[in-house]
């Protein structure tokens, strides 16, 4: 993709994220996104089939960024990795809230769970088997979802410390 195409995609993402601060996902239309991004509907449909594909792409990008942040620096402690991870989620809390609560939340949960399973199978400091992987992945998923939807009110440092204690991760 050329520079102009990348710029257009970033513009669409930024417009969508701005709209998420004003409206619910269900209330956002492709027309709203195009108006905010100052593009035509034809341009939008060049890159996405609909707003569901857009949010799905944002979810995939977010999971990739999370992985890079949490495993990019080999000198980080596990608690620092988890803290960085939670800070990213907090910075994108509105997006994650929508990903956990809209029509496509089942698809996102599957992607997020798969991401956690792959990460834990590489970095877990526990006997790697299906039972343990599922247990730790779904526990982490529950904590993240509780953090995003406000059910867990602890600060990021406390949550990171608790997760580090609960989930054995290789140093």
UniProtKB/TrEMBL annotation:
PROSITE patterns reported in the protein's UniProt record: HTH_TETR_2
Source superkingdom: Bacteria
GO molecular function: DNA binding
Swiss-Prot/TrEMBL keywords: DNA-binding
Transmembrane segments: none
Listed name of the protein: Uncharacterized protein
Lipid biosynthesis as UniProt keyword: no
Keyword DNA-binding attached: yes
SUPFAM superfamilies: Homeodomain-like
